[in-house]
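Dear support,

I submitted the protein below through the web form. The confirmation email said the job was done, but the results page showed an empty box. After a refresh the structure appeared. I'm attaching both so you can tell me whether what I see now is the final result or a partial one.
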Amino acid sequence: MQRCYVGLGSNLSQPQRQLQDALAAMGSTPGIRLLRCSSFYRSAPVGPGDQPDYINAVAELETALAPHELLDRLQQIESDQGRERDVRWGARTLDLDILLFGQDTLDTPRLQVPHPRMGERNFVLLPLAELAPALVLPTGESLAALLRQCPSNRLEKL
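What the results page shows now:
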């Protein structure tokens, strides 16, 4: 079993409900054990156009799945909840991103781990710090150092 962290985000179709449904779906997926989830946070949108605020969280999982198998399952959950991939960083019903997969590093066309932009996003780092404040990434960077360097953005714990 591998410990991993998944970022959750939604800004369409009852975002808090979308995250709750995604957590339930992850928890009932064979090969995935949902350990816990951070608080939910409201954040300013990052992306094109005039979008509603996002609701974000981070889930801690254990999985027997390989990284790309986990990605496939997460993308199926997104699809099941109405995710459409029209505009990059556009509004969406659900976004599930693998942030960390144990101490693995991956750089493939479909998946990069650690997530390449997590250090720029307080809506990822703060929920992750709730779950693992002493975390050190496979790159050797501490979560605390990333938080100190992260640009501030409007973020509200719900």
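Response: this is the final, complete result; the empty box was a page-load delay. The chain has a mean pLDDT of 93.
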